[in-house]
Amino acid sequence: MATLGNPQNTIAVLQKYGFQFQKKYGQNFLIDTHVLDKIIAAAGITREDYVLEIGPGIGTMTQYLCEHARMVTAVEIDKNLIPILQDTLREYDNVEILQEDILKVDIPALAQEKNGGRPIKVVANLPYYITTPIIMGLFESHVPLASITVMVQKEVADRMQVGPGTKDYGALSLAVQYYARPEIVANVPPNCFMPRPKVGSAVIRLTRHEQPPVQVEDEGLMFRLIRASFNQRRKTLANGLANAPELGLSKEQVTEAILELGMGAGIRGESLHLEQFAQLSNMIGKMF
Ligand code: SAM
Predict the structure, then answer these.
(1) Phi and psi for 265 in degrees, rounded to 5?
(2) Within 13 Å and on the Cβ side, how many CA atoms surround 41?
């Protein structure tokens, strides 16, 4: 089997199997070897590593991963791609293909079974329609993770990296930065994919923090506060939090906590750093 990652070989495989792209699965296959090399280098894959690949498509990046890693599990939802993957990956004995929806896979169990519970690396050219649930699911399920190196929509990569004071700053930025150190490692134009997506893409590496950068008594409460603040972005922080029924806080309680932390009563959630959300959550947690 010829190496994939260029337009000719990709077209040959698609034609051999009469493959029809399924838009609902966010199928945009990589056809640029430079981008593939960059992803493998950014993920720092070595023979020690167990890698989880999400959405292998026809196996383009999977071939690269198999060349570098100890073992790869590739989870693909589209059953029409399974016979193709069995063909394009037949020369590798260090790959397992699972036909599953990644959002339903018990990834901690997989990490335990395949890697003895040691930190795994996740590498993917993600299906863009479920980028956020995939990333949040990986962090929140406490999968032992070394890093996540993924292709995402450029705008989403920007959102993961920014701090307060920009329009892209939001709950995703704070969640990603609580769990990991984000770095954009490449910008990738639409012509590196088949078919071409309508948006620009970027490869981002999220390196898991060994210790969270802030001290939080109750992570769940902090993330509920963060989500409530950004759900009502135009409101002041005090109004946004008091209006969120799931928190059960009065405006007086919230205002007291805000003032106690030395912030102005009219402050907006979008101007708070992670550290300030942590302090606010610790303060509100103590009030109950
Ligand atoms: N890795 C391939 C590449 O780079 O050429 C394909 C990337 S394509 C952007 C995303 C892949 O994810 C597709 O193969 C799609 O079928 C698969 N996919 C979509 N939703 C999925 C899900 N819920 N679980 C697993 N795979 C999924």
Answers:
(1) -60, -25
(2) 8
CB 8 within 8 A of CB 60: no
239 Cα to the center of ligand 1, angstroms? 41
Q: What share of the chain is helix, strand, coil (3-state, %, to 5)?
A: 45, 20, 35
Asked if 203 contacts 149 with a C-beta cutoff of 8 angstroms, the reply is: yes
Residues lining ligand 1, CB < 6 A? 25-30, 54-57, 60-61, 75-78, 81, 101-103, 125, 127, 130
Distance 89 CA to ligand 1 centre (A): 16
CA of 281 to the centre of ligand 1 (A): 37
CA distances from 170 to 32, 101, 158, 233, 255 (A): 32, 27, 11, 9, 21
β-bridge partners, 147: 121, 207
CA–CA gap between residue 152 and residue 204 (Å, rounded): 7
Report which ligand 1 atom has the smallest distance to the Cα of 31.
Answer: 5
Cα separation values, 247 from 24, 258, 260, Å: 35, 15, 19
Would you tell me how many other CB atoms lie within 10 Å of the CB of residue 191? Answer: 10
Nearest CA to ligand 1 atom 3: 29
- pLDDT averaged per 10 residues, the chain (length 288): 84 97 96 97 97 98 98 98 98 98 97 97 97 94 95 97 93 96 98 96 97 94 94 90 92 94 94 96 89
Q: Which two tokens stand for residue 242?
A: 């008091």
Of all protein residues, the one whose alpha carbon is nearest to atom 8 of ligand 1 is 27
Mutate-to-test residue for ligand 1 from 62, 76, 110, highest number of ligand atoms within 8 A of CB: 76
